[in-house]
Design brief:
heterodimer, A: 492 residues, alpha+beta, 9-stranded mixed beta sheet, 40% helix, elongated, B: two-stranded antiparallel sheet, 33% helix
Chain lengths: 492, 100
C-alpha cells in the first residue's frame, strides 16, 4: 500500500479510446470487430502509393463532443501529422496523428475522490487528439521463431488519445478516473469502451516524489507502463510500480534528471511490470504535417452548436436526481454509475409513483442486484417500469409490507401476469382486523412477561411478538399487528 | 555531418550501410541540407507557419462503409501470407525501436 510518509505517488494516464464509427478514420472500410483477417482493408489503410485519405466527419464530431464534455478548449484550427516509425502492423511506416495542434486542448475531468467519498477532485487534461490505430500482430506464443502474423483490419480505426496531467495520486484515483471517463464516454455515445476488444487502452506514467538526503523533495525517473487492458491491471500495475520505484530509490537515489524515461509492460499472469527492451537511441518519430490531409477549421459558432447539442452529463444528472427526486447523493451516484438506462428507468418509476426515495431504494436493493448478478440489461428486465411502479404504490399505500413485497418482486421476475394475480398466486391477502386481533390477544396471553416489559417502558419488547404473529399467519401486516398489540395492552 | 548522425538516420530508415556507403552519403546529405538551408536566409518574421500548402480546408466524408478491397488482390503485394494473415519474420523478442 501507499505509505504517504515515504513518498508521494505521481501518475498521469494516456487513454486510447476507439470511437464508435461505422467506417475507419480516413477510408470507408468497416470497423466492426471480429471479422476474418484482412477482409476490412483497402489501398488507403494498407498504405498503397497514391491512395488518398479523407477524414471521417463523424469521428471529428465525436472527438469534439468528447472534448467539450471534458471541458477542453476546442481548436479552431487543427491539422494532421505523420508520426514515423517502422513496425510490421503499421503498413504506411507512419501513423497519422496530431502533433502540435490537437483538436482538443486543455480540460479536466472531475472524479469523486476515493479518500473522501463524494468529494470532487478535478484531474486536469493536457489534450485529446485524433489518430489512427495500427493493425494487430499475432506473435508466436510458444516463443519460437515462426513468422509473426499480421491482421490489418484494425489499421486506420479512429482513436481519441486523452492525456491527463500527472494529477493522480493513488491507484484508486487512477481507477476512479478511468471509471468516470468510461461512464462519460458511454453517456455521450462516443465509444463502447469494450476493453476485451481493445476499445479502451491505457498507458500509465508513474514516478514518485521523495525526500533526498537534504530533506528536499525530488522526483524519481518516470516509467511508462504500456498496454494496460483492464481497470484492475491499471490499479495493480500502478501499485506495483510505486513499491518497485520506492525500493529502487532507496538503493540508487537516482532522480528524474539522471535517467531517461523508461518503458515497461504489465505482465498480468505474473502481476509484475517488466522492462521493454529498447535500442539505445531514443525514439525519434520525425513528426511532420501530412500533405495528403488538409486542416480543419472550426468557427466559434460551430463549436457553440456542438456545445448546445451535448447531452446531459453524468455529473449533471447526479445533482439533478438529488434535487428533483430528493434522493441522497449516494443513491444518485449508484444509479448514474449504472448507466443512462438505469437513470431512465428510475426517473420513469419515480414520476409514476411520485415516490423518488422509495423507487431509488427498490432499484438499488432489488433491481440492480438481479441485473448485476444475471448480466441482463435493464431494458429487458422482466419487472418493467409499470410493474415496479404498481408494486411500489402498493407498498406505499401500506397494502403490502416490505417482506411480502420482496416475495412478490421475486415472483414477478418469472411470472409475467399482472401484479394482482402474482399477489393472489402467492396466497397473499389482507387479513381481516378481527382475525389479527384474535392472534394478538392469544400472543399477549401466552407472553405475560412481554406485556410487563412493555408497560415498564421497554416498548421494543413487542417486536418479538410481531415475528410470532407472522408465523401464525404469513399475511399478517407487521405495522397493523404492532398497532393492535399496543391498543390491546393499553386498553387493558 | 558526423558519421554518428548518418548511422542514426540509417537506423531510423532501417538501412544497413557499409562504411563506404556511409562516407558516400555524407557528401550527398551535406549537399541536401545545404540546399534546404537556403530557406534560412529568408526573413520569416511575422510570417505564419504553414500547416498545408493548399487552400482547401475541411475535406470530409460521411461515415459510410464502402466495400473493402478483396484480400487476395491486396495480398499479391505481400511476399508471404497464410490463412488470410500477412506473414513477417518473428518480431517477438526483437527490440522494437518504437511503438505507439
Amino acid at each position: 500500500m501507499v505509505k504517504s510518509k515515504d513518498y508521494d505517488l505521481i501518475v498521469g494516464l494516456e487513454v486510447h479510446v476507439q470511437l464508435q464509427t461505422q467506417s475507419k478514420l480516413f477510408c470507408g472500410c468497416c470497423t466492426s470487430f471480429g471479422a476474418q483477417p484482412n477482409t476490412q482493408t483497402c489501398p488507403v489503410c494498407t498504405g498503397m502509393p497514391g491512395a488518398l485519405p479523407v477524414l471521417n466527419r463523424r469521428a471529428l464530431q465525436l472527438a469534439i463532443r468528447t472534448g467539450l464534455a471534458l471541458n477542453c478548449d476546442i481548436a479552431t484550427f487543427t491539422k494532421w501529422d505523420r508520426k514515423n516509425y517502422f513496425y510490421p502492423d503499421l503498413p504506411k511506416g507512419y501513423q497519422v496523428s496530431q502533433f502540435d495542434l490537437p483538436v482538443c486542448g486543455a480540460g479536466y475531468l472531475a472524479i469523486s475522490d476515493p479518500s473522501s467519498r463524494l468529494e470532487s477532485k478535478p484531474i486536469r487534461l493536457i489534450r485529446a487528439h485524433l489518430e489512427e490505430d495500427a493493425g494487430k500482430s499475432l506473435h508466436d506464443e510458444a516463443g519460437g521463431l515462426s513468422d509473426t502474423r499480421i491482421d490489418l483490419n484494425r489499421a486506420g480505426t479512429p482513436l481519441l488519445e486523452i492525456v491527463s496531467e500527472p494529477d493522480i495520486r493513488s491507484p484508486l484515483e487512477a481507477k476512479a478516473f478511468l471509471s468516470e471517463l468510461k461512464l462519460l464516454l458511454g453517456y455521450l455515445g462516443v465509444s463502447d469502451c469494450n476493453m476485451q476488444e481493445g476499445s479502451l487502452r491505457v498507458d500509465a506514467n508513474v514516478n514518485l516524489h521523495v525526500l533526498n538526503d537534504d530533506q528536499l523533495s525530488v522526483a524519481t525517473p518516470i516509467v511508462e507502463v504500456k498496454n494496460l487492458n483492464s481497470f484492475r491491471a491499471v490499479e495493480r500495475a500502478v501499485t506495483y510500480e510505486a513499491e518497485r520505484q520506492w525500493k529502487l530509490w532507496q538503493q540508487d537515489k537516482l532522480t528524474i534528471d539522471q535517467r531517461p524515461k523508461q518503458t515497461r509492460g504489465w505482465n498480468d499472469a505474473e502481476q509484475v511490470t517488466v522492462p521493454q527492451r529498447e535500442k539505445e537511441e531514443s525514439a525519434d518519430y520525425r513528426y511532420f504535417p501530412d500533405p495528403d490531409l488538409v486542416p480543419i477549421v472550426l468557427t466559434a459558432d460551430e463549436i457553440s452548436e456542438y456545445r448546445a447539442d451535448l447531452c446531459e452529463l453524468p455529473s449533471e444528472i447526479r445533482l439533478r436526481l438529488q434535487k428533483d427526486y430528493e434522493v441522497s447523493a449516494y443513491d444518485s451516484d449508484v444509479m448514474v454509475n449504472q448507466g443512462r438506462e438505469c437513470v431512465q428507468y428510475f426517473e420513469a418509476v419515480a414520476k409514476k409513483t411520485n415516490q423518488g426515495k422509495l423507487a431509488a431504494n427498490w432499484i438499488q436493493q432489488h433491481v440492480l442486484q438481479v441485473i448485476n448478478d444475471s448480466d441482463c440489461e435493464i431494458e429487458e428486465f422482466p419487472v418493467n417500469v409499470d410493474r415496479l411502479s404498481s408494486l411500489i404504490e402498493k407498498v406505499h399505500a401500506g397494502e403490502l409490507d416490505n417482506s411480502r413485497a420482496k416475495d412478490v418482486f421475486q415472483a414477478m421476475l418469472t411470472d409475467p401476469s399482472p401484479l394482482e394475480q402474482v399477489i393472489k398466486a402467492l396466497g397473499i391477502e389482507n387479513v381481516a382486523d378481527d382475525e389479527l386481533e384474535t392472534i394478538c390477544r392469544e400472543l399477549l396471553e401466552q407472553n405475560p412477561q412481554i406485556v410487563t416489559d412493555y408497560q415498564g417502558g421497554k416498548k421494543q419488547a413487542i417486536g418479538s411478538l410481531i415475528g410470532q404473529a407472522k408465523k401464525k399467519n404469513p399475511n399478517a401486516n407487521p405495522g397493523r399487528v404492532r398497532e393492535l398489540l399496543i391498543q390491546i395492552i393499553e386498553n387493558t | 555531418m558526423d558519421i554518428k548522425t548518418i548511422e542514426d538516420v540509417a537506423l531510423l530508415a532501417r538501412l544497413n550501410l557499409t562504411p563506404d556507403e556511409i562516407s558516400g552519403l555524407r557528401g550527398d546529405l551535406e549537399n541536401i541540407l545545404a540546399y534546404a538551408d537556403q530557406l534560412s536566409a529568408l526573413n520569416t518574421e511575422g510570417v505564419q507557419p504553414l500547416a498545408h500548402p493548399g487552400d482547401i480546408v475541411n475535406a470530409l466524408r460521411e461515415d459510410e462503409v464502402v466495400g473493402s478491397l478483396d484480400r487476395a488482390v491486396l495480398q499479391r503485394n505481400s511476399p508471404k501470407s497464410d490463412d488470410g494473415f500477412y506473414l513477417v519474420p518473428a518480431v517477438l523478442g526483437e527490440a522494437k525501436l518504437t511503438q505507439e
